[in-house]
Amino acid sequence: MNFNIFNSIIFAGVIQGLVFGAVVFLSKKYKSKSVYFLTTLIILYSFNNLQYYFVDIELINYEELFKSFYFPWVEFTSPLLYFYVVTYLFPEKKINPKSKWLFSLFGLHFIISSTYKILVRVESKTDGLEKLVAYLRYYVAYYAELVTALFGIVVLVILFNTINNYKKEYKEFQQSHVRLKLNWLKAILYVLLILTILNVTLVATDMNVFEDISYYPVWLLVTIVIYWLGHIGIYKYGIVEQRKQIRKKQLAKGSNIEKGKTKHIIIERLKQYLENEKRFLDASLTLEKTAEALELSQGHLSKIINTELGVSFKDYINTLRVEEAKLYLIDTNFSNYTLVAIGLEAGFNSKSAFNTSFKKITGQTPSQYQKRHIN
Question: Given CB 3.0 to 4.6 Å as the disulfide criterion, which of 72, 124, 197, 298 pairs with 109?
């Protein structure tokens, strides 16, 4: 990859990031702390890339950048990423004031870079400043990148621990809480961790790496991942908000399942557990969990379901979920909602699982069913 291609990609990313930020901030749809933190992250990261873009296109050189224009925008990346993830996972909780320490690195680098800008202008007039100015220049240009990357690794490790705490807190199904699917977030954080470790390795082994094109692919990949986080983060936020609105309707109504009488007491207990308590909405529900809750063996419960209801446990659960989904597909209040949000709220793990089960049970896809009953 040559510099011209790299510069074009970076500049396109900067423009996209700034436009993305403006659109999100001006939209009335995205009013939440997590979105604000994420959008601010994208905007400030774009400003950071912009100042280096000016160097790459030779509008200014590195000396002029650090003497006059440099601002440690990148130091906001890790703190804002942390606050985004925390407020996305726990929107109801207040931010811990102690978390402000995450901005300490920005404060340190701002002071160091500002001191360098001042001292470099008085160096020629004052004896004995040459070594201090040279040290500050080297720190701002090289060591700051290494410290920032190491700090980023620490924050990413904290975030993985935060995600694990979220999973523990909402391990059990809670109808009043929309349990988030976090594989996408963990995947992005893992990629960022790998790239950050690679960045540390490059900087630690070659302090002239910034003048070498070998560093640019890493920078480009980090940029792509951060911008991708912005877009997918907003998309996931929209799905969660839709799920919350659907969940409100779930809580306001009773079960949509017909309460047919059965002589078998275990089936009555099963229906009470699954239908009345809405346990079928739990995407992680299994035969094992259900049998354990009813204090039965899996084999015994499976045999009774097959005998009394004439279906397997999986088909029984999916039928309940499809019936639940039908309510939202024909509700005009949810006509503009994504099938992903509807499927997840009905208890399916993914859109593909929702489509497959829905078509198997009804003979139609969810979108076909929706068009047929709304139009």
Answer: 72
